[in-house]
Amino acid sequence: MSSPRTVTCPNCATKNRVAPRAEGIPRCAVCHHALPWIVDSDASSFDGDVQASVPVLVDFWAPWCGPCRMVSPAVERLAGVLAGRLKVVKLDVDTAPDIAGRFNVQGIPLLVLLRDGQEVDRRVGAQPEPALRAWLEPLAGPPVPETPEAPASSAAQA
C-alpha cells in the first residue's frame, strides 16, 4: 500500500497521518472528526488503495496535463466536503500505463467512481467544482456522525 499522507483536520487543525486502509474511515486523533481521505497511488499499490468501506474516486492524471492541474484542487476540496463518505485515489497514468489500460483511459483528467471495486460512473475532462459536487454527492456514502461511538485509530497525530 501507499505511504501515509499528512492531512490537517478541518475541525481542529491538528495534523494527522492518514494511511490508505481498506476498512473504516480516517478520523482526527484529537477531535475524532472525519478527515479527507486522499491517497497518492502507484502501479504497485493501486489494487490495495482502491479497497475501502466507502466509495472510491480515482483521479487519473498526469503532471504535464494542464486540465488535470485545474481539477486536482477541486477534487481535494471535495474530499474534505465529503470526508467520511468518499476516498480519493490519485494515479499518475504515465507511471501506471497498465492500470490506465485496464480502465480504458482515453483522455485525462478522468474521474472514475468505484463502489466495492466496481465502476459506478466516470467523468472525462475538466469540470467545474459545483458540477463535480453535484455528481458525487448522491453517489458518495451516507453522512457519518461527527463523533464516533468508539474512536477508531485510523489516523495518528503527526
Explain what you see.
The protein has 4 helices and 8 strands, in the order E-E-E-H-E-H-E-H-E-E-H-E. With 158 residues, the protein is α/β, with parallel strands linked by helices. It has a domain at 42-142: Glutaredoxin, CATH 3.40.30. It has a 5-stranded mixed sheet, with helices on one face. A 3-stranded antiparallel sheet has the order 1-2-8, with no helix packed on it. A hairpin with a 2-residue loop joins strand 6 and strand 7 (118-124). The longest helix is centred in the middle third of the chain and has 16 residues, at 66-81. The chain is globular. The two termini are 19 Å apart. Mean pLDDT is 89; it is low at 150-154.
Supply database-style keywords.
five-stranded mixed β-sheet, three-stranded antiparallel β-sheet, alpha/beta, globular, 158 residues, 8 strands, Glutaredoxin
Present the secondary structure layout.
Layout: E1 5-8, E2 15-18, E3 37-41, H1 46-49, E4 56-61, H2 66-81, E5 87-92, H3 97-102, E6 110-115, E7 118-124, H4 129-136, E8 155-157
Parallel strand pairs: 3-5, 4-5
Antiparallel strand pairs: 1-2, 2-8, 4-6, 6-7
